Amino acid sequence: MNAVKKYLGIIWLLLGPAVIFFLVYGAIQNIDPTGTKDINNPIIWIIIIAIFTPIAIGIMIFGWYALKGDYKHLPESSAEVED
Amino acid sequence: MKPTSIRSVIAASSVGTMIEWYDFYIFGMLAKTISTQFFPEGNPTAALLSTLAIFAAGFIVRPFGALVFGRLGDLIGRKYTFLLTLILMGGSTFLIGLVPGYQSIGIAAPILVLLLRLLQGLALGGEYGGAATYVAEHAPVGKRGFYTSWIQTTATLGLFVALGMIMLVKLNMPDADFNAEWGGWRYPFWVSILLVGISIYIRLKMKESPLFAKLKDEGKTSVNPLKESFSHKGNFKMVLLALFGAVMGQGVIWYTGQFYAQNFLETKCNIEFEQSRTIMLWAIAFATPFFVLFGWLSDKIGRKWIMMVGMLLGVLTYRPIFNIFLSDTTVAASGGKISNPPPLSTKKTKLNEKGDSLFTTTEPGYFGWGENLNGHFEYSVLKNDTLHSKNTKAITYSEESYIDKKLGLKLYVKFIALVFLLILFVTMVYGPIAAFLVEMFPTKIRYTSMSLPYHIGNGVFGGLVPFIGLLLTTTFTKDPLVGLWYPIGVAALCFIIGTIYLTNKIDKDVTD
Fold it and tell me: A7 partner at 20 to 30 Å CA-CA among A81, B51, B206, B289?
């Protein structure tokens, strides 16, 4: 299981940029000043991309930690968490 | 701790949190009326403010509130922090109900409403972590899941009370009175101040969490909770695991089971206003006890698998369940019995100076199928045909829309059962999650560490369900259920991460 945890880290690492790519692509495809739907509104896309960028970076860091084997053992006391 | 004391702790925390959810929901549920009063169409500034009020409050301000109040809760204590969030939420809600409309004070109206809505988001971001931590830190070993599950009922009960309150007001006055500038839509906002007042009174009488009080006495509280939560690798990796392995999936299951379902019944199935809401109310009423049941069960068998099974059930059954909603409310040319009596009403409206008119016809209808036509519903057929002036024979026929569907008893009960199932999945993922989050983090930075992933999971991943749904349905127009792929995909990803990386072990000692 530890090997699975570790190598899946590569997928999580790649997932971050993929999410950002699809959001930016979606924004370019759908922003339309003449449109009336939410998906045509640039402000909404700016908010979503701004909030999702740190989340995408977060899943990349998660993937990096997984790849380094940091999730092989989960902390069992607060002392371990605080290191 | 004495049973009466723990009951007071749970009651004080739960009532306040439920009221905060109620306050947050009524704005969303009355969005259409609020939009007419404060954000009139055709004014670009008002449109921008409206967008910010709807999207920024959920996506940006809630996680920000989690950081601000989480930090405060770890510095000065749980009790005063979640008292502050309650005052902030109740005050802003009441004031929204007092802001005059755009017609009276112009652009000041949407600006004030936006500011108050952002304060609501900020307060909500700080409330949940405080209430969950406060109850968990009072709970004895082996009952943490059970006790915190009462906090978990509050979001759904807040929805229940908000739905009920709006229905109560709306059904007791004509639509024009409800939607007027100082009309009935404001009552649910005004009621909030009474509810919040009672809750503040109860919370003021409570003592600080014993674990936090002990830390404070020993001088061991955190000096910089934000730094310790997010820059210490040991803790930060657990924040990431909580978000991607549990809360992200919980957020989409929670949102789809309640809000997406209600919206789907109303806008895709076109079930009439009252029935679409009473279906939700009955399903919530039947499902709510399961939050407590699964919280209790998580103390016996662990938190992880209950949450994972809830996510997996959502992944596997969402499309079949929503497909039943759609197919059972479709007026089909074959496979059933259609009855259309003569038109109920006709209306001719002048369209332009050329003399073209819009000819609106409403006809009552009935569609039934199955044994003794048990699966039946009534509906109205709405047609908006254009009658051209130059040649009276020239008519542009519109597509018929089947609206205001009223389900027969058998179908009504079936829909309640299906929505109940959707909310049952919510209770599985949401019931044990407070105890699960509390056990992941140390006391001195618990409020901060658990609040942020919770509000990103719920506010951002959950809150995006309608937007991504719309994006998908606009892109892939042939499949009416395509919007479900977003919650299904996020829940599936979270299920994989949670299954592989999370442990099912219960942390018996949360005093450290």
Answer: A81
Classify residue B197: in a domain, yes or no.
yes
The answer for residues whose C-beta is within 8 angstroms of residue B104's C-beta and 6 or more apart is B181
Residue B256 lies in a domain: no
Assess: ipTM above 0.90. Answer: yes
Query: Is the separation of the CB atoms in B252 and B486 below 8 Å?
Result: yes
d(CA B248, CA B437) in angstroms, rounded, equals: 13
Query: What is the pLDDT at residue B313?
Result: 98
Smallest Cβ–Cβ distance between A58 and the set B52, B56, B240 belongs to B240
Interchain contact A59–B (C-beta under 8 A): yes
Residue of A nearest to B505 (CA): A76
Residues of B with CB under 8 A from a CB of A: 48, 51-52, 55-56, 59-60, 63, 228, 232-238, 240-241, 243-244, 441-443, 456, 460, 464, 467, 470-471, 474, 497, 500-503, 505, 507, 509, 512
Q: Identify the weakest region by mean pLDDT among A37-51, B96-110, B228-242.
A: A37-51
CA B210 to chain centre: 32
Based on the domain organization, do B217 and B341 belong to the same domain?
no
Cα B140 from Cα B298, distance rounded (Å): 14
- Note whether B207 and B354 are same-domain residues: no
CB B75 within 8 A of CB B225: yes
Q: Same structural domain for residues B52 and B176? A: yes
For residue B165, what is the domain's CATH number? 1.20.1250.20
pLDDT over 70 at B288, yes or no: yes
Query: Does B324 fall in a domain?
Result: no
B372 to B341, B413, B414, B426: CA distances (angstroms): 20, 17, 16, 35
A64 touches chain B (CB under 8 A): no
DSSP state, B34? H
Number of residues that make up chain A:
83
Helix/strand/coil for B503 = coil
For residue B83, tell me if it sits in a domain.
Answer: yes
What the block records as the tokens of A14 is: 């790649």
> Nearest CA to CA, how far is B45 from chain A (Å)?
12
What's the pLDDT at B3?
A: 60
Identity of the residue in B52, B228, B471 whose CB atom sits nearest the CB atom of A39: B471
* Mean pLDDT of chain B, nearest integer: 89
Beta bridge mates, B358: B349, B386
Among B186, B221, B256, residue at a domain's last position: B221
pLDDT tens for residues B424-459? 999 999 999 999 999 999 988 999 999 999 999 998
Nearest to B56 among A47, A70, A79 (CB): A47
**Which domain, by its residues, includes B381?**
337-406
- Total number of domains constituting chain B: 2
Chains A & B: contacts with CB separation below 8 Å: 94
- Which residues in chain B are contacts of A44 at CB distance < 8 A? 51, 55, 467
Token digits of residue B383 = 């047609």
Which ranges constitute the DSSP H helices of B346-464? 409-430, 433-440, 446-455
What gap in Å lies between CA B220 and CA B488, rounded to an integer?
43
Domain boundary among the residues B221, B246, B278 is at: B221
